[in-house]
Amino acid sequence: MSRDLPDGYEPGSPSLVRHGSHWRLHTPVEKTFTSPGKVAVQLAHAQTRICAIDLNLDHHLAVCTIQTADGSTVATTFLSGGKRVNGRRKWLLGRIARNRRKTGILAENEPDNVALWEKIRHVDEQVAHLISARIVHFARQHQASVLVFEHLGNLKPQKGRYSRRGNSKRAFWMKGRIFTNAKYKAWNEGMITSRVNPRNTSRECARCHGLIVRYHAKQGPEPAGYTPGAPLAWCPACGMKGHADRNASLVIGQRLRTRAHHQEKPRAPLLGPGERDEKSSGVVRSQDANSKGGPSRRRARRHGTGKGMAPPMRITPGWWRPQLFLAHYLCSVSHSNAIYLEQWRTQEWKKPPPFRACGVSLWLLCLSC
């Protein structure tokens, strides 16, 4: 190979890959290491450290906080560059919108502004790799073994012009790429990645878990309300003041520790053969019945198909009309039955007529007349 490999890596079998009209020789590189333990197992030790990351869309793309298993904060770093990336992407999307306005209607499946779209994709990929590499480097520098993010999967772009909506949508996609890249890079360094519920991570106080107030510095020392995207945070309940994104990263780490330390109800221990009670000391079970007869219904034989049993009566629409007509004819021969029928038609009875000796109800027969 043209360059030396780092320590612990070994080259694999090369393969020839076609890329367009060119051929490339790909040589994989392998590294063998011990798989890290699960989150609950690692947080059971007090010396375990986690790196909680809060991803944003404004100036600070990521805020990382190193926390110990007992809740102590070790270090914090702010990874900036969001405004420069968003401004560059919005300018490129504006050029695409102006070019489309000049061109008009495009043919189906015809690409447009290919060079500008490639610039946008390259900028997002480059920033995602850069931020993810800096996150993993910061965690490795402080000996953290777990990375924890928010589970952001239902973000929607802002309303507005094409460039504004497209910029928000691609900023959300870049946040997903940062998590994906940081996950495999952390695994190569022997660290695992986890995600927690993002509900109210930016509105909750890391000290007392009450609702905080986000504000700008120009709003005064004791502002009111919640301003989305404001950098400062103040808790009216406990008086905490600090950076809002750092507070959110602390809450993310606390939620991971709370989930890992949550223990389910312990299961009852299994009794040994000598510790079980006798059968006679307990409650009589269903299989201990004294009846010697068989079951009320015969068993279904022939693989449970029920063949050999009497088929159930099926009720189909209109089956009762010929039977009721014949029964009505037989019952009408009797004079007493005719009297009952006449009394029912004239509504002299408040209740339906009773069943006669023939077994047919007269109030049903009158419906067939």
Quick overview of this protein structure:
With 369 residues, the protein is an alpha+beta fold. It has helices at residues 39-42, 82-103, 114-141, 162-188, 244-261, 320-332, 335-345, 362-365; strands at residues 9-11, 15-19, 22-26, 29-31, 49-55, 60-68, 73-80, 146-150, 192-196, 213-215, 232-234, 241-243. The chain folds into two domains: 35-105 and 113-261, no CATH class; 321-368, no CATH class.
Overall tally of structural domains: 2
Largest sheet: 5 strands, mixed
Count of DSSP helices? 8
Question: Could you tell me the mean pLDDT?
Answer: 78
Textual characterization of the structure:
The protein is an alpha+beta fold. The chain has two domains: 35-105 and 113-261, no CATH class; 321-368, no CATH class. It is 34% helix and 16% strand. It contains eight helices and twelve strands. It has helices at 39-42, 82-103, 114-141, 162-188, 244-261, 320-332, 335-345, 362-365; strands at residues 9-11, 15-19, 22-26, 29-31, 49-55, 60-68, 73-80, 146-150, 192-196, 213-215, 232-234, 241-243. A five-stranded mixed β-sheet has the order 7-6-5-8-9, sandwiched between helices. Strands 10-11-12 form a three-stranded antiparallel β-sheet. Strands 1-4 form a two-stranded antiparallel sheet. The radius of gyration is 38 Å and the shape is flat. It starts with 8 loop residues before the first strand and ends with a helix. The relative contact order is 0.09. Residues 178-252 form the Cas12f1-like TNB domain. GO terms for molecular function: DNA binding.
